[in-house]
Amino acid sequence: MLSLVYVSTMARPVTDEELAEILVIAREKNLQLGITGILAHQGSNCLGIIEGDDDVVRERFAGIRQDPRHINVREVAVDHISARAFPEWSMAFQSADPLIKDIPGFLDLFTDHPDPVPGGGSTSRAKALLEWFRKHPLAPLTDQGVGDAIEPRLHIISAAIMVLHDVGVERADMDQIADTAGISVDALRQHFPTRQSLLTATVDRWSSTLSRPLLPIAEQYGAVAYLHALIVAYSEEPALMRLLASTLAASSDPANEGAEYYRTLYLRFRQTIRTALEHDIRTGREPNTMEPARATEQLLALYDGLRVQALLVPGFDIIEAFDRAASRMRRGWSEDYRRTDLFEIPLDRTREHTARPDLFGSQ
Ligand SMILES: Cc1cc2nc3c(=O)[nH]c(=O)nc-3n(C[C@H](O)[C@H](O)[C@H](O)COP(=O)(O)O)c2cc1C
Q1: Is the pLDDT of residue 78 over 60?
Q2: Residue 229: pLDDT band by 50, 70, 90 thresholds?
Q3: Residue 50: what are its φ and ψ, rounded to 5°?
Q4: What is the DSSP-derived secondary structure letter of residue 39?
């Protein structure tokens, strides 16, 4: 069986009735053909997933492609699958009309509930892409030449996010990104001459899309709550976590064109945490025995360190780990700093100890 994910743009603004018509007709046809999946529509963007027998999926996609109601139709992921990720075919869009919700196959994807995607929590590339679309439906995936001209750089960055999401940073290349954006590699290079420059812009856009809406938490609930919210958000975007980790090496290399930019970005983030901690002390949320500069170092050591572990340790529960460690850390801030006696061990004795292989009683 084949799972095919595509994105497209509606050729003109569509009414709820027109969307409902696509829902009813496509559902009927897909049912006959044994095709399951989803069509999600938001703004003028569509993300469609169809899964079923290889030939049937290919043929139906060829038909959908020709539909004049949408343009810029692009395949973003095709996978051979042994089991379906979706139990039926449904369609999701936002509608002011409450009756729309009663149409069989209508899916309420864009309102907030924990697991709106049908078929349980199974992970597949198709589902990961759908989840991304659900969270950022208005990101301009393909809107070339429709309505207001979308800034071309933004359009390319959105394509890069799709590709990074799909194949990861190591395998994302300029050809595939240009292809997803529907432009030539030369046209892509006019905006982003190198892969590095595109990655830099993508990190910025992707991480700010995720973190900016959470910023009010810093003021309302404090720095620790803000970092917790960021950990939750990043844990749902492993592709972004990997991208950020891969930029770390780049940002420590002065010869790298993105280095200065990444450093600025990181220092800005660090300053945000410090400012939030200063505010926390002023409002009495955190104790004044805590030095904001030190607490920033400690919180970021935890936050960055846990993100590395989440990348490398299978099954690592980063949210639980952050919550426990940050709660203990906060309690420590209420006490005056006292250097532990453990650091008073003479260094030559330490060396002697580390030379012994059975230091911890095991070989
Ligand atoms: C964005 C979009 C997605 C569509 N998805 C499907 C689909 O999954 N299955 C389907 O049968 N028709 C889908 N349609 C409708 C088809 O393009 C087509 O109009 C309809 O199936 C009738 O096809 P026919 O003219 O080949 O019989 C979609 C249309 C649009 C605009």
Answers
A1: yes
A2: very high
A3: -125, 135
A4: E
CB 8 within 8 A of CB 70: yes
Tell me the three state secondary structure of residue 291: coil
SS3 28: helix
Q: Give the residue range(s) of CATH 1.10.357.10 domains in the chain.
A: 200-333
Q: How far is the CA of 21 from the centre of ligand 1 (A)?
A: 10
Q: Which CATH number fits domain 151-190: 3.30.1490.20, 3.10.20.30, 1.10.10.60, 3.30.1370.60?
A: 1.10.10.60
How much is the pLDDT for 188? 93
200-333, what's its fold? Tetracycline Repressor; domain 2 (1.10.357)
Q: Please indicate whether residue 293, judged by its CB atom, sits closer than 6 Å to ligand 1.
A: no
Inter-residue contact 163 to 182 (CB < 8 Å): no
Name the segment(s) of the chain with CATH classification 1.10.10.60: 151-190
Tell how strand 36-42 and strand 70-80 pair up. unpaired
DSSP collapsed to 3 states, 339-357:
CCHHHHCCHHHHHHHHCCC
Distance of alpha carbon 299 from alpha carbon 294, whole angstroms: 9
Instruction: List 4's β-bridge partners, or say none.
Output: 50, 78
Ligand 1 centroid to residue 66 C-alpha, Å: 9
**Which of the pair, 352 or 54, is modelled with greater confidence?**
54
Beta-sheet pairing, 89-92 with 2-10? unpaired
Residue 45: pLDDT over 60: yes
> Is the CB–ligand 1 distance for residue 22 below 6 Å?
yes
The reply to whether ligand 1 has any atom less than 6 angstroms from the CB of 40 is no
pLDDT for residue 147 is more than 50:
no
CATH 3.30.70.100 intervals, the chain: 2-136
Say if domain 2-136 classifies as CATH 3.30.70.100.
yes
Residue whose Cα lies nearest atom 10 of ligand 1: it is 26
Helix (H, G, I), strand (E, B), or coil: what is residue 47? strand
Q: Averaged over 34-48, what is the pLDDT?
A: 91
Give the C-alpha distances (Å, rounded to integers) separating 147 from 10, 81, 150, 252: 10, 37, 8, 42
